[in-house]
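Chapter summary example.
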Amino acid sequence: MVYCLETDIDLRKYKLITFVVATILLLRGEVYAQWEPTAFPDDRPATGFALGTDGIYASGNNLGGVIFSIDNGISWFSLFAKNTQFLITIQECNTIASVNRFVVANIFAQYAWDSMPKWQLVAYDNSTSRWSGIQSYGLAERTAALQSEDSYLYCFTKDSMLYQSDNSGASFINITNGMIGEVRKVVSDGKYLYAATYNGGGVYRSSNLGASWDYFNNEMKAQPITDCINMNGKLLAVSNGIWISDDSAVHWRRIHDDKTITSIAISGRTLFAGGENFYLSVDSGVSWQNISSGLMGHHVRSISMNDKYLFALLDSGIWRRSLRDFPSSVASQAIVYRAPLLINYANEVLTIKYSSNAAYSQAKLELFDLLGRLLITKSIPIVMQGWNTVECDVHSLQSGYYICRLSIDKLVLSKNLLLQK
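The structure predicted for these 421 residues follows.
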């Protein structure tokens, strides 16, 4: 969805208006920009990738553990340079996950007091910039992958067990409880917890956070599942193509036939899928477009995104692409625009003019002070396709800076206002 926000005031009565408007002019079918590699060493395949509160993290063998970037992959730094004076060598790091304020990693390392290297789960606290070991009681040696979901940390083991932690890895409980097969992804939709299995060939569903599970495979015919996501209450699973379920995993139908796809990600209504090729869908999987051009690598193993970039973990390293390259439905869901809107005026009525390329049943206009206190709320019952206007009475406000926030569907536009009466 493409939105434009601007302010319209009677110039016969009031002072000169200056404004800066942030817009996106991205339409379906335009020529997209190319992918670009991050500075992650392409001769050392990445074993994990995670988005943190202050940057992005990656793991790999012969990398010295976990590396970190605050500039979306332009440069990388070793996190194990901090508070790890007792570590002699780190030979491997097979998985990482970001949960709450921690980055949890599984490393194969030798410590000063040990004669031989061993597997160890460790956690990096962003608030203190310190590493600490996790008492995993033999879990580290069996750990195949880590994943976070809804503030929980999950550990998938090589012997097909599923563990859950509600305290960022300080302790784990076994929630396998009858599941068969290696779990590849845990997904929550707010009502159920789902576990997608690889050699178990199906999706398990739990209504009690893993205390018990129900098994479903139906139309997928017990095929291996490599990824699974929640799309606005619907489940999507990757299993020799992409499947969708509208009824909480009970029944499935195929929406993509490429059997090489192994990973999938979502931003609003827009889907990304990767395997031997990289695909984009802006209509919730109804149609797909191949956007692999410029992506150099053998296979897309995982997909992530923050508020600026789409990241693809490949055998050849980690690649990125700006979300601004894609149709507006991607950027509108992933980015909150904060370009300044400067206005000089002395009016008791503020008229906000905005444009939408689709009709919606509701929207909301809010004004805040710089302390974040809500001062004015204006409900908008109907948003028409094209230009719309809404008036807001601001006679009670004093001169100064304010924040104007317009919410339409899942998109939020925020602008700074300078009122001068």
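To summarize the output: Residues 1-32, 328-346 have pLDDT under 50 and may be disordered.
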